[in-house]
Specification:
- The complex is a heterodimer of chains A (about 110) and B (about 110).
- With about 110 residues, chain A is mostly beta strands.
- Chain A contains no helices and 11 strands.
- Helices cover about 0% and strands about 60% of the residues of chain A.
- In chain A, strands 2, 4, 5, 9, 10 and 11 form a 6-stranded mixed sheet that branches. A 5-stranded antiparallel sheet of chain A has the order 1-3-8-7-6, with no helix packed on it.
- Chain A is globular and about 40 Å long.
- In chain B, the strands form 2 sheets. In chain B, strands 2, 4, 5, 6, 9, 10 and 11 form a 7-stranded mixed sheet that branches. A 4-stranded antiparallel sheet of chain B has the order 1-3-8-7, with no helix packed on it.
- Helix content of chain B is about 0%, strand content about 55%.
- Chain B is mainly β.
- In chain B, a hairpin with a 6-residue loop joins β4 and β5.
- Classes of the chains: A mainly beta (about 110), B mainly beta (about 110).
- The interface between A and B is medium-sized, with 24 and 27 residues.
């Protein structure tokens, strides 16, 4: 089946720093989403981005479907950005596979 | 309104109990999902319902029994669970197909004693 790999697994930033999170996938996909999971477990939609580039405030994402990767950029990080960032892909109908996540901690 | 609600928020049950988790959405979505998430792991897909019909069952043990009584409601019936079934159970919905955005509920944190 399709493999989804995220890097780095862990990231510690000083408040105000920028970062790039990466998601590689091994086959073509119908859907790719980025989520932020807060400490209470809620998965918050960041981007629905099967291809192209999107921006939302300090966050932006780019998916290059032909090269099977997606990037999530966080600029001017804040302590509230801490949590786990997941990418998830959908292949073959509804089959949804999450990457292992990037655990981000932003220090004040 | 992009809200998926789940009840209860927390559940503690014994291995001989029968309980149910409930998920509701009023966005008119026709696909609903159950995921299981163990601590420090990503969510894993359990079941998908599309137009109230079971579309995916990821070889989940029969002690988990999903039910979709209507397009807004998804239940997960639990019976004879094991301590290793303790996890966060997440519900999601999407408009029609897997190619659509999935919206997640806050989850039910289940502990099996």
């Amino acid at each position: 089946g399709i493999q989804v790999e995220q890097s780095p697994p862990d990231l510690i930033l000083q408040e105000g720093a920028n970062s790039t999170l990466r998601c590689n996938f091994s086959d073509s996909v119908n859907n790719l989403q980025w989520f932020h999971q807060n400490p209470w477990g809620q998965l918050i939609n960041l981007f629905y981005i099967p291809s192209g580039t999107k921006q939302n405030g300090r966050l932006s994402a780019t998916t290059v479907a032909t090269e099977r990767y997606s990037l999530l950029y966080i600029s001017s990080s804040q302590t509230t950005d801490s949590g786990v960032y997941f990418c998830a892909v959908v292949t073959g109908g509804f089959k949804t596979i999450f990457g292992a996540g990037t655990r981000l901690f932003v220090k004040a | 309104d992009t809200e998926v609600t789940q009840t209860p928020k927390h559940l503690v049950m014994g291995m001989t109990n029968k309980k149910s988790l409930k998920c509701e959405q009023h966005m008119g979505h026709r696909a609903m999902y159950w995921y299981k998430q163990k601590a420090k792991k990503p969510p894993e897909l359990m079941f998908v319902y599309s137009y109230e019909k079971l579309s995916i069952n990821e070889s989940v043990p029969s002690r988990f029994s999903p039910e979709c009584p209507n397009s807004s409601l998804l239940n997960l019936h639990l019976h004879a669970l094991q301590p290793e079934d303790s996890a966060l159970y997440l519900c999601a919905s999407s408009p029609t197909s897997g190619a659509d955005t999935q919206y997640f509920g806050p989850g039910t944190r289940l502990t099996v004693l």
